[in-house]
Amino acid sequence: xxxxxxxxxxxxxxxxxxxxxxxxxxxxxxxxxxxxxxxxxxxxxxxxxxxxxxxxxxxxxxxxxxxxxxxxxxxxxxxxxx
Length: 82
Fold this sequence. Notes:
With about 80 residues, this protein is mainly alpha-helical. The protein has one domain (about 1-80). Helix content is about 40%, strand content about 5%. It has 2 helices and 2 strands, in the order ααββ. The protein has helices spanning about 1-10, 25-50, and strands at about 70, 75-80. A two-stranded antiparallel ribbon has the order 1-2. β1 (about 70) and β2 form a beta hairpin. It is elongated and about 60 Å long.
């Protein structure tokens, strides 16, 4: 239940990434595996921090400040910052 606890308490999700099919590679292989996977890992991190950007608007198009959004699949309440 660690993922649920993390998600509901702090709004984050813990994730494990396996870089190779070998669970415990030898020390001599680690550097090669790291180098082969560095760019994909960095792309994953950049994508994960992209987030949702935009403006919350009312039915007549006016910008709403301090709106509270409820996402149906997420139990957590989200407040906009602008």
